[in-house]
Amino acid sequence: MGALDGKVALVTGGSRGIGRAITERLARDGAVVAVAYARDRAAADEVVTRVRDTGGRAFAIQAELGVPGDAARLWAAFDAQVEAHAPGGGVDIIVNNAGIGCDRDLASLTEAEFDQVFAVNVRAPFFIVQHGLKRLRDGGRIINISSGAARLAMPNGIAYGSTKGALDTFTLNLAKELGARGITANSVAPGIIDTDINAGWLRDNPEAQANAGALAALGRVGQPEDVADIVAFLASDDARWVTGRVVDATGGSGL
């Protein structure tokens, strides 16, 4: 029996990188997982097939984030499919994982870039939760994927770090507001993770691997599964007494 048997989870950005690892782990623990993606249907279908081939349950839903009406469209896509996979509908676990980077310093950042990174990384999670509250069952879980950049000065990513700081504040307030319903809200803050996004400068580059790994007290670059396992814990009943926290998933970077 899995720790999440009978649960329904929504994972935004669930088809690639950290999101894919979260999808696969939650499904392995027994949850029915809605894999939300923006454009890459092939990647979403691939992870859904992988989950089903290993005995899990998942389905893909499409909604581009960072544009007006994104949360409403995402939940409409969810509602259209959930009954076929989990009779009764509703959701127990919301993982706000989708996000974009922004490698700009204060002087070079444009207003359009600022607006876009905040729209995807902050506004979308806010309204996904707002629209999802009527679907989120008592005792549910909200898990926001933040970043170690929220607590470290990184001037070349000032807007990105600011979005993750805002997301952590959002998490804190959700925990207070929703605690009476037994709903927990927590953030998970990864450091450098070996994903496709970082592949261009990190993979097949021993020097970059060594330099990135040296930033962590545990002496290596993080893997998507390192983050997914923490999310699985927070999604489970074992974490019922943890809420309003930012869980560091950087391997001890910046200590």
TrEMBL record:
One of its GO terms (molecular function) is oxidoreductase activity. Keywords: Oxidoreductase. It holds the Pfam family adh_short_C2. It comes from the Bacteria. Gene3D superfamilies: NAD(P)-binding Rossmann-like Domain. SUPFAM superfamilies: NAD(P)-binding Rossmann-fold domains (SSF51735). InterPro entries: NAD(P)-bd_dom_sf, Sc_DH/Rdtase_CS, SDR_fam. The keyword Oxidoreductase applies. The keyword Cytoplasm does not apply. Signal peptide: none annotated. Belongs to the short-chain dehydrogenases/reductases (SDR) family. This is NAD(P)-dependent dehydrogenase, short-chain alcohol dehydrogenase family.
